[in-house]
Specification:
It is built from 1 helix and 3 strands; from the N terminus they run αβββ. A 3-stranded antiparallel sheet has the order 1-2-3, with helices on one face.
Length: 68
């Protein structure tokens, strides 16, 4: 998934400060096939160091659902 410069900077700042929760949110909107009603789900983006065997900085993104 391509990301913009602001998103990359947010990831870098969070990782550099050994943070976990970013200030970023993702909103997913979709339509229910039966009712045709639009649904929205909001997630908070978290970044974690990924366990690896190399000396490379590797991170994974996780998403926590935000109750609306």
């Amino acid at each position: 998934m391509p990301i913009g410069k602001n998103a990359l900077e947010e990831f870098q700042n969070t990782a550099k400060n050994n943070g976990y929760k970013t200030a970023m949110h993702i909103n997913i909107s979709y339509y229910n096939q039966i009712s045709k009603k639009q649904n929205n789900i909001m997630y908070r983006v978290n970044i974690e160091e990924f366990a690896n065997l190399d000396d490379k900085n590797l991170y994974e993104l996780t998403f926590d659902s935000i109750d609306a």
